[in-house]
Every structure is written in C-alpha cells, then in structure tokens.
Amino acid sequence: MTYAGAGAQIDPPGTLRPSLSAASVLGFCSIPQSGVACETGQPRSVELGLLTDTGMGIQGELVWAMTWTNVNCDLIGPQGRPNPPPTVNDATGCDFVTFVNAATGVNPEAIRGAFGL
Fold first, then answer.
1. pLDDT surpassing 80 at residue 11
2. Which of 43, 88, 93, 99 is least surrounded, with the fewest CB atoms within 10 Å of its CB?
3. Which bin fits 70, alpha (ψ -120 to 50), beta or left (φ > 0)?
4. Cα 58 versus chain centre, distance
5. How does 4-15 read in b/e, with b if 16+ C-beta sit within 10 Å?
6. Do residues 53 and 77 touch, judged by C-beta distance below 8 A?
C-alpha cells in the first residue's frame, strides 16, 4: 500500500510476527494518555506491515496500520506534506492512518490525506 503524496508505504511483513496483537494496539485508542493518535469510532482496517517513510527516515519498521476513511482533512505530519486536492470535501474527504510499532506500542507517525482508501 502506497499513500500518495505522503512519502509513506506499507509492505507485507513476510515472516515477522508482532509482539502486540491488533486488539491490544486498537485498545490504545481508548486510552487518552497512550500517545497513539486515533480518530473516533472503529477503524476501517487494522493491518500488519513494514512501514517505510522517506520523509520521516523510517525504513522497514514492523507496525500495525489503523485506517479511518471519510474523516476531516485537518492536516498533520511534517511540513511539506501536500494539501488535499481542491475537489476534496474538507469535512469528510480524507483518510487517516496511524502507525503503531508492533513490538513497543510507540506511535512513530500518523498521516492524513486524500489517499483514496
């Protein structure tokens, strides 16, 4: 999965296995002090993969990627990320993906944009 315009992608994890389950990582969303950025409600998907982000200097980190669709377009992330195209509805036209390290529970990155997920 490539997130257009974000410089991030998720590749299959191969034989790597997570220390933390998807359910435990999803549970971080209900704990305000967990430090994991989440949207409200259940994500559309929770997938295990290897995160690479050229802009953040992340290469092959085993993460759980939690994806919410049809959310607002308030941009987050490092400077330089592109704005959504002008045809995107700012209230519901974006996707939000947060990545959680599958071993430590640390949230190295979250991205928001019109990825078309």
1. yes
2. 88
3. left
4. 13
5. eebbbebeebee
6. no
Q: pLDDT tens, 31-52?
A: 877 889 999 899 999 999 999 9
Structure tokens at 45: 């998907």
CA dist 112 and 84 (Å) reads 9
Query: How many CA atoms, within 13 angstroms, populate the side-chain half-sphere of residue 82?
Result: 14
Neighbouring C-beta atoms of residue 52, cutoff 10 Å: 17
Burial of 64-90, coded b for 16+ CB within 10 Å and e otherwise, reads bbbbbbebebeeebeeebeebeeeeee
Structure tokens of 97?
Answer: 């993906």
pTM for the structure as a whole: 0.84
Task: Say which amino acid occupies 107.
Answer: N
